[in-house]
Every structure is written in structure tokens, then in C-alpha cells.
């Protein structure tokens, strides 16, 4: 079953939440890869999240700010979510300790993962069928000749331009810079393999 399990650790500042993962173990609050720094003027730790796109802001804030308020209350952190018309800003988490920032980030990460399926698709991967252009045009001509005058609404204008024909094999939701970079990396990684599969001599044949 899909569910999220937390282990609660009491601290002097707040209750720090760690998510339990059966494969990876407990979330490491001292993760060196976490880009968290200390503001020497305020003494607070600051964790910027520039890779969180504006499409996710409403999920972090929640209805009437309830989701953000719950995270702040549970972890002791403060979460700054910019307005949509301010592209220069990004989500920032602040806390008295590094652990507090990490706990809040973990909660935000869970929200991002759950809300991703609620967003529209942004990209797709397809196979062009441009080498089938002649076959498509012949098919359209046959249908037009056979149905013209006998089938209402059937004319060449209802068919896709043969030059734009493609076969969609994958739909993607890429709303963050990390997602885009990861997708580009994977596409580059499989480029030679794809080029080998779709050699120039290969052709797509349409029947029907």
C-alpha cells in the first residue's frame, strides 16, 4: 500500500520529522548535498529551493495557507513562497537549525511528489513518421475520392498534415529545472541507441 510513515524526534526547537523509506532508510538530516547556509546576521539557517517551479507553489501553500502553516508548526521552520508574478524569487526555508530546515524540506518534497500527477503534461517524446508522407497522402486521396459527397464532413481538412505525423511514446511533466536537466541528460544518453534503431534505411509502412 502507498502510505507515508514518519518517525518523530523531539528537539528543543521543534519536532523534527523523518520519513521512513524501506529501501533508502531514514532521511539524513545532515545530508552534505543540501544547499543550506547560515545567515550570520540573524543566526538562522537558510535553505533555498530554486528548482521548485511556480506551478507547485499552490500545493505548498495549500487552501488558505493551511499546508504551509502545518509544516511550519510541525517543524519550527518558516517557508517563504513567492507570488506568481515574481519570477526572480523562489521558495526559501528558514530555521533555527540545519535539522529544522531539512525536516521542512522533506515535507515539501513529499508534497511535490504527490502533486506532480495533478499537473498537466509539459513535454512529450515521439517518433516522427515523415518517411510515411507519401503513403498518408495516398490514403487521404483515396478516402476523399471514396467518401466525397457520400459521407458528411469527410474532406481533406480533417486529416493531420502528413509532415507533422508522429507516434507519441511518452508524456512528461517537467516543471522544475532539475526535471528538465535530468530529461535532457537521459535523452543524450540514449541518443546513439535511438539513432541506431531508426537508421535512414528503415521505413514506416502504413496499411489500412
Structure at a glance:
Helices cover 33% and strands 20% of the residues. Helix 2 runs antiparallel to helix 3 (98-115).
Distance from N terminus to C terminus (CA atoms, Å) equals 44 Å
Biggest pleated-sheet summary: 4 strands, antiparallel
Instruction: Find the CATH topology of the largest domain.
Output: Ribosomal Protein S8, Chain: A, domain 1
What low-confidence regions span 5 or more consecutive residues with pLDDT below 50? 6-32
Shape: elongated
Order of helices and strands: EEEEEHHEEHEHEHH
- Say how many strands there are: 9
Structural domain count: 2
Overview of the structural elements:
The protein has 208 residues and is α+β, with helices and mostly antiparallel strands. It folds into 2 domains: 113 residues, 2-Layer Sandwich (Ribosomal Protein S8, Chain: A, domain 1); 75 residues, no CATH class. Helix content is 33%, strand content 20%. It contains 6 helices and 9 strands. About 13% of the residues have low confidence.
Amino acid at each position: 500500500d502507498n502510505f507515508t510513515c514518519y518517525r518523530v524526534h523531539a528537539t528543543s526547537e521543534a519536532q523534527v520529522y523523518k520519513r521512513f523509506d524501506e529501501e533508502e532508510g531514514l532521511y539524513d538530516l545532515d545530508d552534505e548535498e543540501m544547499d543550506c547556509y547560515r545567515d550570520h546576521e540573524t543566526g538562522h539557517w537558510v535553505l533555498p529551493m530554486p528548482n521548485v517551479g511556480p506551478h507547485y507553489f499552490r500545493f505548498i501553500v495549500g487552501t488558505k495557507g493551511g499546508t504551509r502553516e502545518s509544516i511550519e508548526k510541525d517543524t519550527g521552520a518558516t517557508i517563504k513562497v513567492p507570488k506568481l508574478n515574481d519570477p526572480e524569487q523562489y521558495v526559501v526555508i528558514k530555521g533555527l537549525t540545519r535539522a529544522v530546515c531539512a525536516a521542512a524540506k522533506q515535507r515539501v518534497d513529499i508534497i511535490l511528489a504527490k502533486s506532480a500527477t495533478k499537473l498537466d503534461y509539459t513535454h512529450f517524446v515521439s517518433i516522427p513518421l515523415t518517411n510515411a508522407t507519401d503513403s498518408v497522402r495516398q490514403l487521404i486521396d483515396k478516402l476523399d475520392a471514396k467518401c466525397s459527397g457520400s459521407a458528411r464532413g469527410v474532406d481533406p481538412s480533417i486529416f493531420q498534415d502528413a509532415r507533422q505525423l508522429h507516434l507519441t511514446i511518452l508524456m512528461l511533466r517537467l516543471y522544475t529545472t532539475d526535471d528538465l536537466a535530468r530529461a535532457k541528460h537521459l535523452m543524450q544518453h540514449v541518443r546513439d541507441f535511438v539513432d541506431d534503431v531508426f537508421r535512414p534505411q528503415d521505413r514506416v509502412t502504413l496499411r489500412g
